[in-house]
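Working notes for the structural subgroup meeting. M.R. asked for a predicted model of this chain before we commit to crystallization trials. I am recording the input and output together here so anyone reviewing the notebook later can reproduce the run.

Input as submitted:
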Amino acid sequence: MGPEDALSSKGEEAEMSRLSVSGTLSVPDKEQLELAEAILARLNPADSHELRQMSTRFGLVSGMLLMIVALFWFLAIHVAGNEWGGNSGPSSILFDLNFSQISWLVPVLVFLATLLVSLSRERGGAITATLGGVFLILVIYLAIEPIGHAMLATEGSDLMISLMQTVRLGILGVLVHYSARHFLDAMLVTWVRSVLAGFDVVLAPQDED
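Returned structure, recorded in token form:
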């Protein structure tokens, strides 16, 4: 690729940008513009009106999923725990946690891991991605540990009970993951709207082609 090709590539990227500065009195810095462009490129709203709708929609879905998580935990673990596989069994090797405590810890860790990984994707942070990966592996370990106890014939463990415990933790983790993603998207869209409202920046409509 020659210099002409490089210049052409940069020109095409500039043409693809949907944010344009409309004045000189109030202009965001380069990092803010790049982050806003990355968010818009991923979510791809048609215009500023749809961007506002996205903020509401993402927040609504996040809240609904969070309520489902609370109801599932209450019904499947607190109320019907014995009928859904039982809450008893060997404590975790890590910190000697029982299943009820793990059922609280897993959703919290999944929420943190999802936020950290998603933020690192948007901002390119290595530290946040590393922490997110640590939390993710810890969640996976805690979720499958009951099956590990059963396979190793740990005293007080039963394969079916352990399997049901892992399934319930997995459902909690998946629901919290998508709730956290929609929550973060709602926050990011709100931030982009604040950039558009607070600076001399205009969002170009989506190219129909």
